[in-house]
Design brief:
Strand content: under 5%
Strand order of the largest sheet: 1-4-3-2
Structural class: mainly alpha
Distance between the termini: 91 Å
Number of helices: 31
Radius of gyration: 30 Å
Largest sheet: 4 strands, antiparallel
């Protein structure tokens, strides 16, 4: 097969193959007067493939290495999966060109797709003729077809890009893949990059990308993959998700799509990102096509004026120290709440920060200013302004910006949930819950609740969308615990696949010119992804408990009797899963022993990541454990307390013994942990755990249980008193609500137990003695 392949044909134009054949030496042609017949077996790629299968093509990597390509059900193959490589097939055999010359040649498809590998020329039958005429181009000016193939909106973006001067290039492919910048962004912001867009991606960028989407819809009927387009960065446009009950049927849009005309202008158009699948043994049930509606961004003049005024005011406050605030954010906030796309944010911040929404910039500055005294380059011991000054401007701008939601505004919505609470609040403010509802709505509006793994969008966007969805999911769960409200997100309302560490790590590495904004410790980058994945796992467990045991009681006659804890077997399994999580949590995410806190630096120092950033994760574990045992021990009534066969008595001792770990955890929390970033949900989680200690004490029946429960309360109370002496002004707001409850218990409990209120269910523990 290799003898019939002519490398020069790859770099030639439309007539080059004939010229190459005619210029062959006579000696070579006379030595082989009879050409052997070539037989081609029709094959495909994207399904299960056995050893040496001839009906299924091997992937490009295995074919080039001449190794077996074994696929169990769907790509990636065993070899690519083991090494984290892309697993794709470009088409016919012999599409590779070895040697230095081929490494600088690629089609527009490989320039657009971050899945493309260096030295690969797409030569499927559908694209063979187009490839022959395009690959000769050495500059964008020589390949007008490449402009129409750029990601973005097919019609409008094509017309926009065709009006650009021929010198408009992409940025470095390596930079694009590392920092998630779309080609449209680079055309707008990097007209003279150091590396032309037609150069093939670097191996590190290609290895970091995900496999190309495989589908069985109309877009791939000719063997060509659907075009890769980004849903972000389209100039003057915003993409809105079109759900199953949207204005037009998804299957109809699959075969007939038109734009929405307003006179002679286009107001909106529909773009397909997934062609759907037919029912099969490999893909499972049929999946409908997925479409997005691209809307022209046109707003009221007064809304634009307000957004511009907020942007100017935010920069006026932060501009003198903006770089230091960004450093403080990525050092103290990002390790616990890594929702901001680090590379993407920093790249645009350096190029022109005002191209980002004012809400996102304001949220980053506002959260960072709480750590003013931890950043050596910032003058003084505190910021010259209050956090709420920046936060109010960011929230005001966000209300207007949500007319055109996107990934940037989604990040701002999540960050603004975690502002410092009011100094006088002893109960969580309702705004936390209402703003969470807004964040969930924003996520659904841009389609984060749908699994993007098979969409024809860049791999960086798939990973960022997954990360933001699960951050929204976790925020919804923990916010619901503030007042016991049912979460907005329920199991059948989303299909996004589980978050992995690979989804987190792709954006933690930044370019060398951006290193001044981030921590230089490489291991800290790994901890960030692992920590957030475990945080999401805990939120999933907590959501499962809420769905199992804390549903809203039904009052209609057709519903069954209210049974808040009807599935004890499932709750028991959840308890087992919690215990397994605690025993298998990575060592890097553990809490250090209590004595080590004597050696930790003061709050003005820089706390080590292994201690100050892991405490919120463990607090969420104990909050989930509280929910599980409250569900298992229900109902918490006087009759159940007196009944030896009740669930309350059956699980009480297990709850007391296992929850003693919370009291131990509080002794391990030191000053660096306390004064780190906990997020807004730490207060309600602490309240939940502190109240559960009181719950155990009041429900104890045996003398030993009463004394043991009281010792847990005393230990927790002592830990709070110790932490109050170490807390800064922000940390005091974290522990103040639960400290008030504990102090109230010690003051009021003796009188309440001796003289219970009329109709009170609970009485003094039989063997309790002061």
């Amino acid at each position: 097969m290799s003898s019939s392949f002519s490398p020069p044909a790859v770099g030639a134009g439309g007539g080059a193959p004939a010229a190459s054949a005619s210029s062959a030496s006579p000696a070579a042609s006379s030595s082989h007067p009879d050409k052997r017949r070539k037989f081609t077996i029709q094959s495909d790629f994207g399904q299960a493939r056995g050893f040496r299968s001839r009906k299924s093509r091997p992937c490009d990597t295995c074919r080039k290495r001449k190794t077996a390509c074994k696929i169990d059900t769907a790509p990636p193959c065993d070899f690519c999966k083991l090494r984290g490589l892309q697993c794709k097939s470009s088409g016919t055999v012999g599409s590779y060109v070895d040697g230095p010359a081929s490494s600088s040649i690629s089609t527009p498809t490989s320039a657009i797709k971050d899945e493309a590998s260096p030295g690969t020329a797409v030569s499927t039958p559908a694209f063979k003729e187009e490839t022959a005429s395009i690959t000769t181009a050495s500059t964008p000016a020589a390949s007008p077809a490449s402009i129409a193939r750029l990601p973005g909106i097919e019609s409008v973006s094509s017309r926009y890009l065709s009006s650009r001067p021929p010198s408009a290039h992409h940025g470095s492919p390596d930079t694009e893949m590392t920092h998630g910048m779309s080609p449209v962004y680079h055309l707008l912001n990097h007209p003279h990059p150091h590396q032309p867009y037609h150069q093939a991606p670097t191996p590190s960028a290609a290895a970091a990308s995900s496999p190309a989407p495989s589908s069985s819809g109309p877009s791939s009927s000719m063997g060509a993959p659907p075009p890769i387009r980004t849903l972000e960065d389209a100039p003057g446009r915003t993409s809105h998700s079109m759900g199953p009950a949207a204005e037009q049927d998804a299957l109809l849009l699959d075969s007939f799509r038109s734009v929405i005309m307003n006179g002679h202008e286009i107001d909106a158009e529909f773009v397909q990102v997934f062609p759907g699948t037919s029912p099969s043994s490999h893909h499972g049930p049929a999946r409908p096509p997925v479409h997005f509606c691209f809307i022209v961004d046109e707003f009221f003049p007064h809304d634009d004026r307000v957004k511009n005024e907020c942007s100017d005011a935010i920069e006026a406050l932060a501009a003198p120290h903006a770089d230091a605030l960004v450093r403080a954010y990525f050092r103290h906030v990002h390790p616990v709440l890594p929702v901001v796309s680090k590379g993407r944010f920093l790249r645009r911040y350096v190029d022109d920060r005002r191209q980002m929404p004012a809400s996102l910039r304001g949220a980053v500055y506002a959260l960072a200013c709480l750590f003013w005294d931890r950043e050596p380059s910032l003058p003084g011991s505190r910021a010259p302004y209050n956090q709420h000054e920046l936060a109010d401007l960011a929230l005001t701008s966000l209300q207007r910006e949500l007319d055109s939601p996107n990934l940037d505004k989604m990040q701002a919505s999540i960050l603004l949930l975690h502002l410092k609470p009011n100094d006088v609040d002893s109960v969580e403010h309702p705004r936390t819950w209402t703003q969470t509802a807004q964040a969930v709505a924003c996520a659904q509006m841009i389609g984060l609740h749908q699994d993007p793994d098979q969409w024809s969008i860049p791999s960086w966007e798939k990973k960022l969308r997954k990360k933001l969805w699960w951050a929204t999911f976790a925020a919804d769960v923990w916010s619901s615990l503030c007042h016991g409200n049912p979460p907005h997100v329920y199991p059948s309302s989303f299909s996004t696949s589980p978050l992995t560490t690979d989804d987190m790590w792709f954006d933690e590495e930044v370019a060398s010119d951006l290193q001044r904004f981030v921590d230089q410790d490489a291991s800290a980058h790994l901890f960030i992804g692992a920590r957030f994945v475990e945080h999401v796992k805990m939120a999933v467990l907590a959501r499962d408990v809420l769905a199992t045991a804390f549903e809203v009681p039904q009052t209609n006659t057709s519903s069954s009797a209210y049974r808040p804890h009807r599935d004890l077997d499932h709750l028991y399994n959840l308890r087992t899963n919690l215990k397994r999580w605690q025993s298998m949590v990575p060592h890097c995410l553990g809490m250090p022993p209590a004595p080590q806190h004597q050696l930790l630096p003061s709050p003005v120092g820089l706390p080590p990541a292994s201690s100050s950033n892991n405490a919120p994760l463990h607090l969420s574990y104990y909050a989930t454990q509280t929910l599980v045992y409250r569900a298992l021990m229900s109902p918490a009534t006087k009759a159940a307390r007196a009944d030896p066969s009740s669930n309350l008595r059956r699980y009480f001792r297990d709850a007391r013994v296992e929850f003693s770990g919370f009291a131990t955890f509080m002794t391990q929390v030191g000053g660096a942990d306390l004064n780190g970033f906990w997020g807004r949900h730490g207060r309600s989680q602490l309240i939940l755990c502190g109240n559960f200690l009181v719950y155990l004490f009041l429900l104890a029946h045996e003398r030993d249980d009463v004394q043991a429960a009281f010792r847990l309360i005393e230990s927790f109370h002592e830990s709070l008193a110790r932490l109050e002496t170490l807390a800064d002004s922000t940390a005091r707001l974290l522990i103040r609500p639960v400290a008030l409850r504990m102090n109230s218990f010690f003051v009021q409990a003796p009188d309440l137990m001796r003289n219970p209120a009329p109709g009170a269910e609970m009485s003094t523990p039989d063997s309790y003695t002061t």
